[in-house]
Amino acid sequence: MKPDSLSLELPIKGTKRGMHTAKVAVYATVRAVAEMFYGATIYEMVRGLHKQRSQREHLFALVVFGDILGIPILPPYYTLRLLPYFYPSFNGWKMTLLRERDLTDLCDQEIS
Q1: Which end of the chain is least crowded, N or C, by CB within 10 Å?
Q2: Closest CA to 93 of 66, 58, 63, 67
Q3: What count of Cα atoms within 13 Å lies in the side-chain half-sphere of residue 101?
Q4: Rounded to an integer, what distance in angstroms lies between the CA atom of residue 104 and that of residue 86?
Q5: Residue 51 reports pLDDT greater than 80
Q6: Backbone dihedral region of 21: left (phi > 0), alpha (psi from -120 to 50 degrees) or beta?
Q7: What does the domain layout of the chain look like in residue ranges?
Q8: pLDDT tens digits, residue range 22-50?
Q9: Per-residue model confidence (pLDDT) at position 50
Q10: Residues 67 and 79 sit within 8 Å (Cβ to Cβ)
């Protein structure tokens, strides 16, 4: 091992395998604490932001590419100009908009 490299190694029984095991254990512990802190503080906010972003992307796609579903809003010229940027997520968007909804989907409120 180079003396100039920065790493966290705790020798256990003086073997290289013991150093690796200790390093992995410390990393796993730090990661578990970080994930617990994340879940306890900002998880709900991040989840809500992801939901809002998804809804806005679906609304934008509906306005721009609504004529594919039979809702003409914008002229086809602009739709064709934006199509290469939207194409990778096109099938997922179409399936999301056309999927069958349940009564529980309408009330998407969480009990807090």
Answers
A1: C
A2: 58
A3: 9
A4: 29
A5: yes
A6: alpha
A7: 1-41, 52-101
A8: 888 999 999 999 999 999 999 999 999 99
A9: 92
A10: yes
